[in-house]
Amino acid sequence: MATESPVPTPVPTPVGAVATPEHTSRWKRLPVVHQLRTSVGLQRGMLVAGLVLCVVFLVVALLAPVLAPYGWAQLRADGELFGAHIEPNADHLLGTTVAGYDVLSRVVWGARTALYTIVIGVAASIVIGVVLGLVSGYFGGWLDRVLVVVSDAIYAFPSLLLAILAAIVISGGQSSMWGGVIATAVSITVVFIPQYFRVVRAEVVRVKGEAFVESARVVGSGHVRIMTRHVLRNAVRTLPLIVTLNACEAVLTLAGLGFLGFGIEPTAAGDWGYDLHKALADVTSGIWWTAIPPGVAIVLTALGVTLVGESLNDLADPRLRTRRRKALVAGEVGQTVAVPGGVLAAGPEGVGGLDALEGPPPDVVPEPEDGPDEEKDR
Question: Which residues span the membrane (predicted)?
């Protein structure tokens, strides 16, 4: 007599459990891509808008020789001068300045100058601030106390005043492209170092007391290996948020130097702040095309970087992550309901499908249909 093999009983899905994929591709775990996938509603709109503006800024800065119709200090083409205060036309889409420069070309080349400032200033701040914060938080002692006091003193110093001082010391107030970029980068580096120092130091103080760090000490790992392999990688998770916010301040500091007359000379590179300063006198004369393009470029660049930074900051908030998790759980419960013998799916209709499957509410009594006997009586 053949015996029937037992049929395995399906295990019902617990109510409220969220199904998670077993494996996520590597590109989906990248910092900005991961935040973009986890953002919802207004947060996603802000992040997408900021990313679009940042991508446009990067494309314009990197492809400036291709996109700019003329050089940043070019005054003539085909042997003829451009002329001053030429209105926008087919040859000069945004007109010319009081000095005869093409406005569109100056705006495009100014994006590359701003990108140089962001990269040099922020990169130097990260390297110095992370190293000092790592050493100070890991070893502590008198060195930690001295570095904390110095960072607090520097952090209270206005970045624009420091940038003006650096511009005067380095290049005497008017400088070449690299002189102005380095002067701005030095000023923002000195001001931004305490920010990275504080964040990294606080994380290192927290991480160095964890069990895995103590285990590394027990097995005989040296200080350098523990700091670089175990502590550092767990202490720099929030740095992308600070980088985006500091990049915005770097653009505004460069524009402020140029607007005050301590920036880059017009024959050395394109500078949005310098162009905006020279356009002040044109506004009262009704010449709008020399002031609006560089001003809009400054605003859009700062706005794009700020939107990305604020969105990443909001997504890093544990309270917002809890709201999203609750929303996902609520959506999962609305799609399925446990019944005897298994799980009954509501289908694409969601909660409406569940209402249709459960029948009408108790207070609604369906009207009886006319039977065949009633039709005969009629």
Answer: 46-68, 114-139, 146-170, 176-197, 239-264, 287-309
